[in-house]
Structure prediction request, 304 residues.
Amino acid sequence: MNELIQLSPEVAAAREQGRAVVALESTIIAHGMPWPQNLETAREVEDVIRAEGAVPATIAVIGGRIRVGLTNEELQQLAQSPDAMKLSRRDLPFAIATGRLGATTVAATMICAHLAGIEVFVTGGIGGVHRGGAESFDISADLQELARTPVAVVCAGAKSILDLGLTLEYLETHGVPVLSVGQDNFAAFFTPDSGLKADFRMDAADEQARFIRAKWALGLSGGVVVSNPVPAAQAMPREEIDAITAQALAEADAQGIAGKAITPFLLARIKALTGGRSLATNIALVKHNAVVGARLARALQDRG
Prediction:
């Protein structure tokens, strides 16, 4: 194990006992949701994974080390710290070298999970190609990480603030397979159906595990996207979220907001414009992903 990585007692015990472990990001806590829902959701998602027979490993950088598995106090520190860095691949060395508190994005969590020997990572939605990306080249580092790091990422598709068509094109170009659960189409975060087909539909955890084991046994590098749509009862109408997203994007453009700041801004504006309903949807989809991720992690563990 890399000396820069510190496993929590719960995660270390799980590894020694051969139990399934599921990685969780911390940007959703520090930057993705408001207080106190961020802390409440973090704890509830961990409990969902435990209830499914796996062990949660929320990842962050604290005190110059990658922490894999956090205490309740550390979760609260992330949830209430306004200056926690948002860490992607390029930022990890800086946070470690300077001792800064850092919350890991999808890309950084994949890196840390792989270093810790964890094969499954649960998040809300992956990043992707931003709208207008053909001109701006604003493409999330999440996509390149999926092309290079062998971790299965369970998500509710890509965030609907993105250009989902170009996001899927990028993943196809880099050989990243997209599996869909319960439907043929790729999910669109707040809504179940993007209208765009995923590569393969695989509903059962064992079926997904066989696919993933086959990919890696072939020496094919990179991860796998497992697209798990938000439950219909908690979903938002597609037409409504599209209109609200367009408004939020126009406001971001008018205010010159871009780069790392764009996603937190858009999610906050969408929450405000929906009267908080989008936050409830976000929380529901993360919990639903935790169920699918825990079952996948157990199936992969059973396959050795």
